[in-house]
Amino acid sequence: MLAVVVHELATNATKYGSLSQPKGRVDVKWNIRGNDTFMFSWIERGGPPVHEPKSHGFGSRLMRAALSENPRIVYAEEGLEYSISLPLEQVWKGS
């Protein structure tokens, strides 16, 4: 499900966000805290001003509900920020 969320973030950044502008960028960071928590963040900068949408479509609902933990989504004027922490076993199943 994390891959689906990242795909949705990338699609939205390309259509409406920072990647729709020549100088836009996305900073993606992840790490493992301790032995059991996966941390992920997506921060857009350099795109058009961001405002929280008046309604949430399928993609927005997916990004909020796809993973069992509640993500942090900030519609900052300078760019969208998305972050989540998950149990590592939820990300790394089968390894």
Explain what you see.
There is one protein chain. The protein is an alpha+beta fold. It has a single domain (2-91), classed as Heat Shock Protein 90 (2-Layer Sandwich), CATH 3.30.565.10. 27% of the residues lie in helices and 34% in strands. The chain has 3 helices and 4 strands. It has helices at residues 2-15, 58-65, 88-91, and strands at 25-33, 37-45, 72-76, 79-87. The protein has a 4-stranded antiparallel β-sheet. The chain is globular. The mean pLDDT is 88.
* Rg calculated over all Cα atoms: 14 Å
CATH architectural group = 2-Layer Sandwich
Q: What is the chain-wise order of helices and strands?
A: HEEHEEH
* Helix coverage percent: 25-40%
- The structural domain count equals 1
Under CATH, the topology can be stated as Heat Shock Protein 90
CA distance, first residue to last residue: 16 Å
Task: Give the biggest sheet.
Answer: 4 strands, antiparallel
**What's the total helix number?**
3
In what order do the strands lie side by side in the largest sheet?
A: 1-2-4-3
Oligomer: single chain
Strand content: 25-35%
Structural class: alpha+beta
Instruction: Output the CATH homologous superfamily.
Output: Histidine kinase-like ATPase, C-terminal domain
Mean pLDDT, all residues: 88
What is the strand tally?
A: 4
In one word, what is the shape? globular
| Poorly predicted regions | none
Kindly provide the name of the CATH class: Alpha Beta
